[in-house]
Automatic annotation (TrEMBL):
UniProt key word Protease: yes
Transmembrane segments: 66-85
CDD domains, per database record: Peptidases_S8_Subtilisin_like
Gene Ontology BP annotations: proteolysis
Organism taxonomic ancestry: Eukaryota, Viridiplantae, Chlorophyta, core chlorophytes, Trebouxiophyceae
Protein source organism: Chlorella vulgaris
Protein name: Fucolectin tachylectin-4 pentraxin-1 domain-containing protein
The UniProt record lists the keyword Metal-binding: yes
Ranges annotated as biased composition (Pro residues): 502-518
Family under the similarity heading: Belongs to the peptidase S8 family.
MF terms (GO), sorted A to Z: metal ion binding; serine-type endopeptidase activity
InterPro entries membership: Fervidolysin-like_N_prodom (IPR054399), FTP1 (IPR006585), Galactose-bd-like_sf (IPR008979), Peptidase_S8/S53_dom (IPR000209), Peptidase_S8/S53_dom_sf (IPR036852), Peptidase_S8_Ser-AS (IPR023828), Peptidase_S8_subtilisin-like (IPR050131), Peptidase_S8_subtilisin-rel (IPR015500)
Pfam families membership: Fervidolysin_NPro-like, Peptidase_S8
Annotated Gene3D superfamilies: Galactose-binding domain-like (2.60.120.260), Peptidase S8/S53 domain (3.40.50.200)
Length: 723
């Protein structure tokens, strides 16, 4: 639920307040959907944070003043792809299967022994010769020296008393499990939470049922239809206040088609079909979602309907429930219903909510219930900062998951960007389903306690979550899958599953400022020229249309940072530039001509969910095009950013160089040196510059140069110590 509360049918930028409803005809509590699209949401997993439960009071028709907490939406296109996965069941294949379906080396076998001690096995008598160790478990590669083929050698060694296992040395191929869907690159959350590594083990299963309690789903969406098992509807036709929900067994009762949008989006996060060359990929490429529609088109619903949804999902054998809704006060009925789901063995995943409050101080439900089968999920951004809109609670909220600019399916049959804890919740519910799929493929069915433990104990610890959540960490699907492999080993289901982990790259060295030219020129780096900071969006950079950046995420193009739209400081408003997550991201602009740059103003975004203070970011000026961080060798350092708060603007004076001159050139670049992958978000860039200073003027004393600049730019220019 992000950006704030909205009145029904209002613009997402407006804020509303929750009211208590006193209507004598209907005293059921309402639930306000916590994401942002204009209508619809499908649920079958329980993520109660995006759709906020709120107690509302109506003096007029139900929708007229219905309060809705919404997470803002932007549209875009998305895609996915996949690859084959090799079974990891540890079972021994028949020799017939080996010869028919596998490729392997014809001159050797791999052997493991029943003890760690090398057995007195006369290798030569067995027609073998030691070649090399294999792996860390004491396995050994032996070459075949007696002319036998691999199948015969395996038959021979299987009867040796010292041999625990023998297999061919299989030929392996790069098994791309990255989806081939068209816009998987727009789903930034997958690499952050390790989905792609987890998909090397499992991509989901048709036997896992996830209950999605929301506004329904677009029933014929090509990225969802195959993963929806069945559903129910508690939203009356016409959506008129006081109209009862559809009766069980009627056509309307089974019409769970989404007309609000929220449910379709959250459903795609859980189970958008993967590897189908369309749109997006969910955490599960295959899953069976039970969809219960109870959120109306104003983004709210009723506790009684939510309870019926939970009941139906229990009856249908749902293992996980995703609830992206919440925001009410304490309800004994709802608490009891959730307790019933616990008795049925369900994991109940719920969104923490989008009010930006501490739930330890102001509890809201259902996220503040203490049922053992619950996981409460807050929202984080690309750089693991807690989202400004997200509810937190060191004793209430369990963990973080991505909830900003999440690209998923939408009710119009296409795809949308949405923000909110509503998006974070299905990330976790989907992860639970993926873990269950892997466990069931090994003959084990996990209870809610196992799923909860695997997820919470495998989070990536993040600094910003340490005092805001119980675990202090953000979802890591890959780590949870690795932990599951270890659990299955303990239970005798499989041999250890190990996923590769990439070691963090070394911190890059910040480019050194270009040394001053030789010839006895004086480098006066201790001062800069003070000047009146330009009014945001009014500098000569506005409208140049010549900006570039190291990469572009979604539609956040480089030129957005010089469009003059200074009041639009949120990503969804479409007026900020943003790079992808990468090492040393940068932004640059070409000036109309060579200029002496006196200073540069930077404005950050409010909702980028990143280390948006930009501490350590560097501003460079040069004459040649900036194409990479290596371009700094031919540029002059103007300033290093000490920090900028989210959504704020700050102006930096360029340090004076040779002869007291400011840096001169036709290009301005903003570089963010990073250790690891980060993004660079800029909502407006302004510059103050004067005419190009000639070499003759540069060689003048600093005082004379200052006088020249004052004459050209006004008496507001003064020499001040640089900072």
């Amino acid at each position: 639920m992000l950006v704030g509360s909205l009145t029904a049918r209002s613009d997402p930028s407006q804020e509303g307040e929750a009211e208590e409803r006193t209507s004598a005809n209907n005293k059921r509590q309402r639930i306000a959907a916590a994401s942002l699209p204009p209508r619809g949401v499908e649920v079958v997993a329980a993520c109660s944070s995006s759709v906020m439960l709120m107690t509302s009071q109506r003096r007029s028709p139900r929708r007229a003043q219905a309060v809705v907490l919404v997470a803002l939406v932007l549209s875009a296109a998305a895609g996915v792809g996949a690859g084959s996965i090799r079974p990891l069941d540890g079972s021994r294949r028949s020799l017939e299967e080996i010869s028919k379906n596998a490729e392997y080396a014809s001159d050797r076998v791999i052997v493991s022994f029943k003890t760690d001690v090398v057995v007195a096995m006369a290798a030569e008598e067995e027609g073998l010769q030691f070649m090399r160790p294999a792996g860390q478990q004491g396995s050994v590669v032996y070459s075949i020296t007696d002319g036998a083929d691999v199948a015969d050698k395996i038959k021979q060694l299987e009867h040796h008393p010292a041999v625990a296992m023998v297999e061919p040395d299989y030929k392996v191929f790069a098994q791309w499990t990255n989806p081939d869907d068209t816009n998987i690159n727009l789903q930034w959350h997958h690499p952050v939470i390790g989905s792609e590594k987890a998909w090397d083990v499992n991509t989901g299963s048709d036997v896992v049922k996830v209950c999605h309690v929301d506004s329904g789903v677009r029933v014929d969406h090509p990225d969802l239809a195959g993963n929806v098992l069945k559903g129910w509807n508690f939203v009356p036709a016409g959506q008129v206040e006081g109209t009862p929900p559809p009766r069980a067994g009627t056509p309307d009762y089974f019409n769970y088609n989404d007309t609000y949008g929220h449910g379709t989006h959250t459903a795609g996060i859980i189970g958008g079909i993967g590897n189908n060359r369309l749109g997006i990929a969910g955490i599960n490429w295959r899953v069976k979602m039970l969809v219960c529609r109870f959120i109306w088109n104003d983004g709210s619903g009723y506790v009684s309907d939510a309870m019926n949804c939970i009941k139906l999902c229990n009856q249908e054998g749902a293992m996980i429930t995703s609830n992206s809704w919440g925001g009410i006060g304490y309800s004994s009925f709802l608490e009891r219903e959730i307790a019933t789901s616990q008795s049925a063995g369900q994991l109940f995943v719920v969104a923490s909510g989008n009010s930006g409050i501490n739930l330890d101080d102001v509890p809201l439900y259902p996220t503040s219930y203490k049922s053992d089968n619950m996981i409460s999920v807050a929202s984080s951004g690309q750089e693991d900062f807690v989202s400004s809109f997200s509810n937190i609670g060191l004793g209430t909220v369990h963990m973080l998951a991505p909830g900003e600019a999440i690209y998923s399916t939408f009710m119009d049959g296409g795809y949308k960007l949405m923000w909110g804890t509503s998006m974070a919740c299905p990330m976790v519910a989907g992860t639970a389903a993926l873990l269950q799929a892997q466990a069931m493929s090994r003959g084990v069915t996990l209870g809610y306690a196992d799923l909860k433990s695997l997820i919470l104990n495998s989070v990536d610890k993040v600094a910003d979550g340490a005092d805001k959540t119980i675990t202090g960490g953000r979802l890591n699907v890959s780590a949870a899958m690795t932990a599951l492999g270890q659990l299955l080993v303990q239970r005798g289901a499989i041999t250890p599953v190990s996923l590769p982990t990439a070691s963090p790259p070394p911190a890059p060295r910040p480019p050194a400022p270009r040394p001053p030219p030789a010839g006895g020129a004086v480098y006066n780096g201790g001062t800069s020229l003070a000047f009146a900071a330009p009014v945001c969006g009014t500098s000569p950079l506005r409208g140049l249309n010549s900006a570039t950046q190291s990469s572009t995420v979604l539609t956040y193009q480089a030129n957005h940072a010089i469009d003059g739209e200074c009041k639009k400081r949120r990503l969804w408003q479409g007026s900020c530039s943003r790079t992808k997550l990468q090492e040393n991201p940068w932004w640059a602009v070409k000036l109309p001509a060579r200029k002496s740059v006196l200073g540069v103003s930077l404005q950050t975004g409010i909702d980028c969910g990143c280390v948006s203070d930009l501490q350590g970011t560097q501003i460079w000026v040069g004459s040649a095009p900036w194409t990479s961080p290596a371009s700094a060798a031919n540029f002059t350092l103007c300033a290093t950013v000490p920090g900028i708060a989210r959504g704020q603007r700050r102006t930096f004076s360029c340090a004076l160089g040779v002869g007291g001159a400011p840096p001169s050139g036709q290009y301005i670049a903003v570089l963010r040196p990073t250790a690891g992958k980060k993004a660079l978000t800029l909502c407006e860039v302004d510059a103050v510059y004067g005419p190009n200073l000639t070499l003759q003027s540069v060689r003048q004393p600093a005082r004379g140069l200052l006088g020249q600049l004052q004459a050209q730019l006004g008496s507001a220019v003064a020499a001040v110590p640089s900072s």
